Prior knowledge:
Blueprint: E1 4-17, E2 20-33, E3 37-42, H1 48-56, E4 63-76, E5 79-84, H2 90-97, E6 102-105, H3 119-129, H4 135-148, H5 154-158, H6 167-179, E7 185-189, H7 197-214, E8 217-221, H8 225-231, E9 234-239, E10 242-248, H9 249-254, H10 259-267, E11 316-317, E12 323-324, H11 340-353
Parallel strand pairs: 3-8, 3-9, 6-7, 7-8
Antiparallel strand pairs: 1-2, 1-4, 4-5, 9-10, 10-12, 11-12
Helix pairs in contact: 3-4, 3-6, 4-6, 8-11
The structure holds adenosine-5'-triphosphate and magnesium ion.
Amino acid sequence: MSEPVLTINDLSISFKTSNGVVNAIRGVDLELNKGETIAIVGESGSGKSVTVKAIMGILSGNEEINSGSITFRYDRDGEEVTQDLLKLSKKEMRKRINGKRIAMVFQDPMTSLNPTMTVGNQIMEGMIIHLKLSRARAYERSLELLQLVGITDPEKRMKSYPHQLSGGMRQRVVIAIMLACNPEVLICDEPTTALDVTVQAKILELIKDIQAKTNISVIYITHDLGVVAKVADYVSVMYAGKIVERGTVNEIFYDPKHPYTWGLLSSMPDIGTENEKLYSIPGSPPNLLHKVEGDAFAPRNAFALNIDFKQEPPMFKVSDTHYAATWLLHENAPKVEMPETLRKRIDTVVKEAGGRWTDSRSYK
Ligand SMILES: Nc1ncnc2c1ncn2[C@@H]1O[C@H](COP(=O)(O)OP(=O)(O)OP(=O)(O)O)[C@@H](O)[C@H]1O
Ligand SMILES: [Mg+2]
C-alpha cells in the first residue's frame, strides 16, 4: 500500500514584481509516497523550482500564497504527525523541517556548502544541532556517510575545504550533509546538470542506492529524459505553472496524452546520445503577468481545438494513475496520436536507461 508523505493540493503562488503580479503557480497538485521518486519535468520557467521552494519554505519573500496546502506526514518519536507546511513560519520551517526532515540538493553544490568550513564540520553540524549527537558520534557517522556517498579516504576528506574538491565530489558531500539527519524527503533540483556525464550517472546511481537502503522519498527535477527514465516512478509534467499531465513513468513514456508532453519529451536531451538535432517546441510559454485564457499551451499546439482557446481543460482521467489536462481526451475530440518519431526516440532512451520495465511495458 502506498503511504503518502507529501501531498500538495491546489497550490497557487504569485509574485509581486515591479512589472505587476506574476501568477507563477496556478493550482498544482502533487503526491509523493514513501520510498517513491517523482520527477518533475517542464520547460524553463514552468514553475518547478518555485514548487519545491514552496515545500521548503525558502521562497524569496515577494511571494503570495493564494491557495492550497502542502501536507507533510512524518513520524515524530513514534507518533504520526500531519502538518500543513504552509502554516509554518519560515523560522519554524528552518527549525523543524528543513534539512532535518526534508532536505534539498541544488544544481550548484556551492549553494549548500560553506567555503570557510571543513567538510567534516559541515556534515557534523546538523547531527549535533538537530539530532543532538555528541561530537564523537557525529564524527563516526560522518565517516559512514562519506563512505555511503562513495568518497574514499573519508578521514582525510573530513579535513578538506570545499574548494579542494572536484564538482562531483562536492555534490556527493552535499548529499552526505543532506542525508545526515535521516530526512524523509530528498528534493533534488537538477543536481547533476553542472556535472559531466560520467559523474552524473554515478550521482544518479548513488541516489538510487541510498533510496534502496533508506526508503527515502525523492522529488527529482530534471531537463534530461535519460535521468527521468533512470530514476522516476512517477512523472509530473509542468507547463505555465500547472501540472498538465501526470502518470507512471511507463504511462508518460509509452502513452503520453498531452501534446505539450509530446513536444517536451521530443525536445529533452538525454545522457546517452549525442543530441545533435533535437526538436524544439515552436513559440514560447505565456507571460504569466497576464491572465491565461483556455489551455495555456493552445497557441503553440499544432493539435489545438477551438475550445482550447476559450476554456481551460480539466484533468481527464486516463487510468487510476494517469491524468492529462487536454481537450483531446474529451470523448467528442478528434483522435490524434503521438508522433512516430517521438515513439522511436523514447524506445532508444528506455533501452539506454537499462530495461527497467521490460516486463510491464505496454504499447497502446
Ligand atoms: N522571486 C520571484 N519573483 C518574481 N518572479 C519569480 C520569482 N521566482 C520565480 N519567478 C517566476 O516564476 C516562474 C517559475 O520559475 P521557476 O524558477 O519555478 O522555473 P523552473 O521551472 O524551475 O525553470 P528552470 O527550468 O529554468 O529552472 C518564472 O516565470 C519565474 O520568472
Ligand atoms: Mg528551476
